[in-house]
Amino acid sequence: MDLTAESHSIPLSDGNKIPLIGLGTYGNPRMTPKGTAYESVKVAIDAGYRHIDGALVYYNEHEVGQAMREKIADGSVKRGDIFYCGKLWNTFHNPELVRPTLERTLKTIQMDYVDLYIIEMPTAFKPGDTFYPKDDSGKIIYHETDLCATWEALEACKDAGLVKSLGVSNFNKRQLELILNKPGLKHKPVSNQVECHPYFTQPKLLEYCRQHGIVIVGYSPLGTSRDPFWVNLKCPPLLEDELLVSIAKKYNKTSAQVALRFNVQRGVVVIPKSFSPNRIRENFQIFDFCLSETEMKAVEGLNKNIRFVELLMWSDHPEYPFHDDY
């Protein structure tokens, strides 16, 4: 596949396409200055990004929407050039809440449809507008999950034209099979957004998804922040890896660009998050070099099967996805 900065989309099983690199927009809402996501999305679109990954629960979807609309208004891009992914949060799994929640995203970004809408986690929380509902002891209140019922409500949203493609995130094989084997399935999940990078290459899940026409979208493709609240610090910083650094030197690139190129070459979509204009531009510059087969194998060999993002605080949820091998 000949990938270029202008043409790097791959087909989805429903006939739509997804750009192989997107901008992740998550930032800690307590620590990220207002306007940061807005500025970052504008920089990204100017740099060539056409895929923006957002979520209601990031608290910045209004900024992301404003940036996309302004870039459409000034003629930089058309709406059809932009691929926007939104997410259904854990408190909105109840079928009757699915469409209103998607409509809330559409109202926030002020657009008629999203390109991809995904179930953010297979773990349902107590329904309602409190994103992290807690009991008196401070523990998150879980809710019984019926992933098939949630999926049927999403299918109705696609049929109504509110979303072009449907996918999932953080689903393991068993949970994917629940949907794929659902009686009367109308629309298959086209993607599964999961952690994926050279230290966590996801070979089994990648192979399973390939067999079923599901594209892997890799979050934290550069590793992640070192926030001890939710990040596994046993995993060493990915971008300091000697092999990645040495390959980067050879191509006059950064270790981050090598890590991104590795995934893109194996058909994994990457959504590196950055709010630094220089890094945003740098992360996109992965189409002017190519890793050899030997280098690809070597980077694959870095796999440690260690997650940075374990989400252990929810590991007692009946649908916590990471107890399974994949």
UniProtKB/TrEMBL annotation:
One of its GO terms (biological process) is bile acid biosynthetic process. Residues 21-303 form the NADP-dependent oxidoreductase domain. The record marks 87 as: Lowers pKa of active site Tyr. The active site is at 58 (proton donor). Belongs to the aldo/keto reductase family. It comes from Betta splendens. This is Aldo-keto reductase family 1 member D1-like. GO terms for molecular function: Delta4-3-oxosteroid 5beta-reductase activity. PROSITE patterns: ALDOKETO_REDUCTASE_1 (PS00798), ALDOKETO_REDUCTASE_2 (PS00062), ALDOKETO_REDUCTASE_3 (PS00063). Coiled coil: none annotated.
